[in-house]
Design brief:
Length: 916
């Protein structure tokens, strides 16, 4: 017989796939000797067994939801899905094992489940293999009914506590297990508090609690026919509800966004745990604590404690908890026990811990531990600090920080020059400064974002059902909740700026406005939030880019020690080069010169060059243009002094620099309408029409311009080389590499070298009296160049893969059209695993890169091999390039730190795989 149920003492905490993250933590804490309430786990295999009778149907409906259908389709699918799930029941073998372990739990606790004199109460909690905070369901105080509540009161000597636990159970059971609208309970509870003239839950008198119990039971009777008094029926229904929550809309949506596939987590486990009560009295309570500050990474306990409360109260943000420092002052011995336990878990798990705990009558219980969700700042600081403390190695520190964390550290912040005054301040829950239009409902956030709007989701407090709004919004603002509230945890997890607990913000979600500082802000109005400081501003406030923090610089230095791949930057202008150097780029792997032409006076000259019909007509314009360009080249080379700069000769189709034919034709008509001579404009129109191409991206561009107009290439090279020569004479050390784009035959390279590049080198050397050591290479971006690389490599000093154009060529996709028209659907249908313009297509494009790089090295061992397409800044692509003969990748300036880390991680993982 298959074993579906295990106690905390007998299970293996390392098997998260079977026991779920929550169950694994309960097992681990129990086996480490921490005080954990006894309990047992119903495994994820039991969950799969539960769904087995109709698994094909649920899988089919889930697949439809994965495609993010219109709301009306989604609602219909969810209705069908819930109908199927409601028809399922617990298989007998699972239920019989659960009953057996409940009997064992009774013996261990010395109390009986359903006993009216000495009742055993349990919590029934979800737990998938990976953390899905708030996405699935939990039921507390299970086992209470009209008789056992009296036994609980007698057992504890506290009738108020017993009825408080009962009203909580009825509300939770009604909402989660029976599917009743929570507003019916919460509205009733608020009415009762108002009736008795109290603000906070603990101040409601006993008669108010008893009234709540009766009114809650009446709600359940009206909505679902009555509340089940039998605890065993309650348990069975609760287990089924937790299994059902795996297929809830919020859980499905979360798995889609976070890419939690079945091989990572397939169903949820159920944890049945003996209840310990934080709402017995003022010497009791519940809390959440982190082993380090999850916002800053500071090495101190960070968290909150709420007296006279149960688990969900803290994360729900309903009442304001006390800081953990206040807990330390009030309960020093408990704090010390908590500190030692939390730090033990951090050391064993080699990660910052997020620990839930309850204090019952002065006794501390550990309820759950998991790896903490932190800001990128805290993640990086913690990685460096823990490595220095000997908790983890340098290699582990490098793997501890994801490339996304590095990107988040480069989030913008409020420009101090803006002198903007905040209207309110909340808690800085997740970093980054961002502006957006206010929306008050997650569905509106999704709809507005789909229209291209930047929105900030504003809520009194967020709930797991709001998760789709988080992903659609650029930031989140709440008026309630602390640093461990749902809004804070989820925002940190997905890297969205968030400010929480801004109590000065009075929000009316129904009327869609909020008041703050005497101002009324309606839906659609612009605000700015700063997740670094917690400040809230009305309107759009200017932001500036962040600086690298010292810990990140240190981590990246460690990365540089481990990585094999070099990391350079792609650039358009001198400003890009300055950013790249600041972020540790080892040079410029692609200097695109096209932006240099965009200044009006330069663009006019370039147009004249393109429109000229003879070399003699072009030359005066080329003479003027090259002198203008030289200044830009000189500035870039000076910034990158001593580091290589690969300059790509002009690449885009020439029509991009010309006015549109219809615009010129309009000028012809206008001149003729005014009776003016239009011959000059008509000539321009004819020339532009003559230069027009049916498919410009595959037409007269790149090296083809150099072959047909070698004088154009000559003067471009002259600008590059004179800038180099002047800097050398000024004492600088420019390292210049000239790259020929769009090559498909080695003879193109030979021709432009002989007719344009080498003559320019000779002329500048003679003119300036200096020796120029300039490398000449090519951009490999055509399929034929890859296949004939054995010929090409003999005639160049370096090759660099232009993976953007190479991907277009291999797929026969137009990037702009593909990404706008059909790639999203291809991804939804799993025809493509990833957007090939973002992550390298290993089977096709990657195969060509691997072959061409290896072949080039074989025929010319000294040839340098780079990648300068956008894939050079993509972590997954970098891991692939590490395994090839590529020497360096080149990324956009702000992705250079990310690429340095990803390259190191590729090296570390490769070494670990080799050594098993």
């Amino acid at each position: 017989m298959v074993k579906y149920v295990f106690s905390f003492k007998e299970a293996d905490y390392r098997n998260k796939k079977l026991f779920g993250g929550k169950g694994a933590s309960l097992i681990q804490m129990t086996q480490l000797g921490l005080r954990v309430p006894p309990g047992f786990i119903i495994t994820t295999e039991a969950c799969k067994k539960f769904y087995e009778p109709r698994r094909s149907e649920t899988a089919e409906l889930e697949a439809i939801l994965l495609k993010n259908p219109p709301p009306e389709v989604r609602d219909e699918v969810l209705k069908k899905l819930h109908g199927i799930i409601d028809s399922l029941d617990l298989p007998d073998e699972i239920w019989s094992q659960a009953v057996e372990y409940m009997k064992r739990l009774e013996a261990e606790a010395g109390r009986r489940f359903g006993d009216p004199e000495n009742p055993l109460l349990v919590s029934v909690r979800s737990g998938a293999a990976v953390s899905m905070p708030g996405m699935m369901d939990t039921v507390l105080n299970l086992g209470l009914n009209d008789e056992t509540v009296k036994g609980l009161a007698k057992q504890t000597g506290n009738e108020w506590f017993a009825y408080d636990a009962y009203r909580r159970f009825l509300q939770m059971f009604g909402k989660i297990v029976l599917g009743i609208d929570e507003k019916l309970f919460s509205t009733t509870w608020e009415e009762i508090k108002k009736k008795y003239g109290v603000k906070d839950d603990p101040d409601v008198p006993l008669e108010g609690l008893k009234e709540a119990v009766e009114r809650f039971k009446e709600i359940i009777r009206k909505e679902r026919g009555g509340f089940p008094q039998d605890p065993w029926e309650q348990l069975k229904l609760a287990i089924k509800a937790v299994f059902r929550s795996w297929m809830s809309p919020r859980a499905i949506f979360y798995r889609i966004i976070e890419k939690i596939t079945p091989d990572i987590a397939d169903c949820t486990a159920v944890n049945v745990v003996t209840m310990v009560f934080g709402n017995v009295g003022w010497d009791s309570g519940t809390g959440v604590v982190f082993s380090r500050d999850v916002a800053t990474g500071e090495n101190k306990l960070y968290g909150e404690f709420l007296p006279v409360a149960q688990g969900e109260d803290v994360v729900a943000g309903i009442r304001t908890p006390m800081d953990i420092e206040e807990f330390r002052k009030r309960f020093p011995h408990l704090y010390e026990e908590l500190y030692q336990g939390v730090k033990l878990l951090e050391k064993v798990n080699k990660d910052v811990q997020d620990v839930e705990f309850t204090v019952e009558r002065g006794k501390l219980f550990f309820l759950q531990a998991r790896n903490a969700k932190m800001t990128a700042l805290a993640r990086v600081k913690t990685a460096v600090d823990m490595a220095k403390e000997g908790i983890i190695t340098k290699e582990e520190a490098l793997l501890y920080v994801s490339p996304d964390h590095v990107l988040q550290l480069l989030y913008p912040r409020i420009d101090p020059k803006a002198k903007a005054k905040p209207v309110a301040q909340g808690l800085p829950a997740s970093p980054g400064a961002v502006s957006g239009q206010v929306v008050f409902h997650p569905d509106d956030a999704v709809r507005w974002a789909a229209q291209g709007k930047r929105v900030i989701l504003v809520r009194v407090e967020t709930k797991p059902d709001d998760v789709h709004g988080f992903y659609a919004a650029v930031g989140v603002l709440t008026s309630r909740g602390g640093m461990t509230s749902h809004a804070a945890v989820v925002a940190r997890a997905i890297g969205k700026p968030a400010v929480v607990g801004a109590e000065a913000v009075e929000i009316d979600e129904e009327e869609k406005y909020f008041k703050v500082g005497g101002q009324l802000i309606r839906e659609g109005d612009w605000i700015t939030i700063d997740g670094h400081t917690g400040n809230i501003y009305i309107g759009v406030v200017p932001t500036i880019e962040a600086e690298l923090i010292p810990e990140l610089e240190e981590l990246l230095k460690w990365a540089d020690e481990y990585r094999r791949l070099g990391v350079r930057a792609n650039a358009d202008l001198p400003e890009d080069a300055a950013i790249a150097r600041k972020f540790g780029a080892q040079g410029i792997g692609l200097l695109r010169i096209e932006r240099m032409f965009r200044k009006p006076e330069r663009l006019e000259l370039l147009r004249s060059i393109i429109l000229a019909e003879t070399p003699e007509e072009r030359r005066p314009y080329l003479e003027k243009l090259y002198k203008m360009l030289k200044a830009d080249f000189k500035e870039v080379f000076k910034i990158m002094d001593g580091l290589p700069v690969v300059v790509r000769l002009i690449d885009p189709p020439l029509h991009e620099f010309l006015p549109k034919p219809e615009e010129v034709l309009e000028q012809v008509y206008q001149k003729k309408m005014r009776g003016e001579d239009a011959s000059d404009v008509e000539k321009l129109y004819r020339r532009i029409k003559a230069l027009q191409e049916a498919n410009p991206m595959l037409g007269h561009r790149g090296v083809r311009v150099g072959v047909t107009h070698p004088d154009f290439y000559y003067y471009l090279n002259k600008a590059i080389l004179e800038a180099t020569a002047e800097l050398k004479k000024e004492g600088y050390n420019p390292v210049v590499e000239i790259m020929i784009p769009q090559v498909s035959d080695v003879r193109e390279i030979i021709y432009v070298k002989e007719k344009a590049i080498l003559p320019a080198i000779r002329d500048v050397e003679n003119s300036f009296g200096v020796k120029l050591d300039v490398k000449i290479g090519t951009m490999v971006e055509t399929v034929r160049a890859c296949l004939t690389i054995d010929e090409i490599a003999k005639h160049v000093d370096f090759i660099s893969f232009g993976t953007n154009d190479l991907t277009q060529a291999v797929f026969s996709f137009s990037r702009d059209d593909a990404e706008n028209k059909f790639i999203p659907q291809y991804l939804d249908l799993k025809i493509l695993d990833a957007n090939p313009f973002e992550t390298i297509d290993v089977k096709g494009v990657g195969k060509l890169v691997d072959y061409a790089a290896a072949t080039a090295k074989q025929v010319n061992p000294s040839v340098e091999v780079g990648v300068c397409g956008e894939h050079g800044g993509d972590p997954r692509s970098i891991h692939f390039f590490h395994k090839t003969k590529v020497d360096y990748v080149s990324a956009s300036p702000f992705r250079v730190p990310l690429a340095r880390l990803a390259a190191a991680q590729a090296a570390v993982l490769n070494r670990q795989n080799k050594h098993g």
